[in-house]
């Protein structure tokens, strides 16, 4: 069986992003934005998907690393006839007027280090999800790829390599620095190695400045920094949306059908991401995201969906691409996500928690505050109407709706945070009424969510099944880590859901049967919970072991195989990286003072 490890690096510019394999092949890229049809999709079909690969003729070894504290990726090729590196990036930097240069481009800089290395470049774009043939033609200043059937699309390649050698995949000898620039748009200015290297240096400076704004810690700093940089890459600058992951249809289990398109903005995921990035000193991501929320909820009676397109689209119709084999032959390959129609009542609390954090830390403009206050009051109304109803829950069960404990707790969170926001904004008239609703929800949870048989809060009302999401009751302030009921819940969930050091989300069968892989975030949640109830040594050991399951660049996908620890599911996964940061902060709590934390959060420098 072929090697299916997700040994990829991500490069991007908050407009789109690409995955570059450890051997320097670009195997996933959608242009001009994250959710556009693929240009390269070898990740989903090694024969039909298309890629841009580098094939050295006398290769001895390759190695790959990010340029420190940036999203520029260096792949080094050691060959019998010489050594060279390829630096991949997507341009992103700030102009003097404050606007950003972030074109739909991928740049590759080839640097000779020693000798005269020889290699072939296989440039094989397959536009529009490879639905029809892509045609390549040579022009005066670029190589153009186009479709002639189906939706028209085109792609431009600028390079100072010999065009014919690139088109025909002929041997190239590297004697000096060269470049390749893949662009969705035709360039107005002449491209050359000097211009591309200038873009590279400006992009490097942008990311170094961004990283300088990230709170630093005495331990786990590299892991926190890489996770923060990855989360930033999953934000869409144009609207403020935050993606759940870069890819579609990477399976939770090889050969099965849990393959979903994650190139959308889930209210839950996005709210969690902006909360954690704000804790690390990056307020702009949160401000842009909350503006996205205000823009998609323009009317006071607008129903909130669990997810939206990154440009604010509300219909995310799901369809399949049957011509694609799928990752590891795991069909179907899906575009769109039918889960947008689901009801998940936990989104209200998670969004409200992020809004409360924003009001707690930052002074917003009056009009912006009024917009958010309207959202707050509307969310309270939604909770009033929906908290007693069953829903699909955090795991998006596609069949039966239930009274999920996590959903109920997050409805409580929504009302709790709404009151706190009302206090901050001096809107005291609302507090008494909302307090009654908060108490009513809490009482309902205490009466119905506890399982005497398991001595634990259960997955759903009237059930003895357990669920990892219930571990978050403490994180959201519903219960104290010192409460015996919470301690008992943590031990019960660990005892029932842990397997080979990793966690199931749940073990009761859903509409697709028993899950066969571990949802990475759940193991971070358990680690976090164990530390908080006093199992500090065990938590630290578990955390450090979990860090070893990342890929060679410190990146995590959605899932891990229980036996092999192989990464599975969409990649890189925002959920996994935000949980890594949150758990590290829990373990390191006390290493920086509250005053220092506040100063880190409030830093507002030129680059964000």
UniProtKB/TrEMBL annotation:
Pfam families: Glyco_hydro_15 (PF00723), TREH_N (PF19291). It comes from the Bacteria. GO terms for biological process: carbohydrate metabolic process. Gene3D superfamilies: 1.50.10.10. InterPro entries: 6-hairpin_glycosidase_sf (IPR008928), 6hp_glycosidase-like_sf (IPR012341), GH15-like (IPR011613), Trehalase-like_N (IPR045582). Residues 10-138 form the Trehalase-like N-terminal domain. Coiled coil: none annotated. Residues 220-584 form the GH15-like domain. One of its GO terms (molecular function) is hydrolase activity, hydrolyzing O-glycosyl compounds. This is Trehalase. It comes from Saccharicrinis fermentans DSM 9555 = JCM 21142.
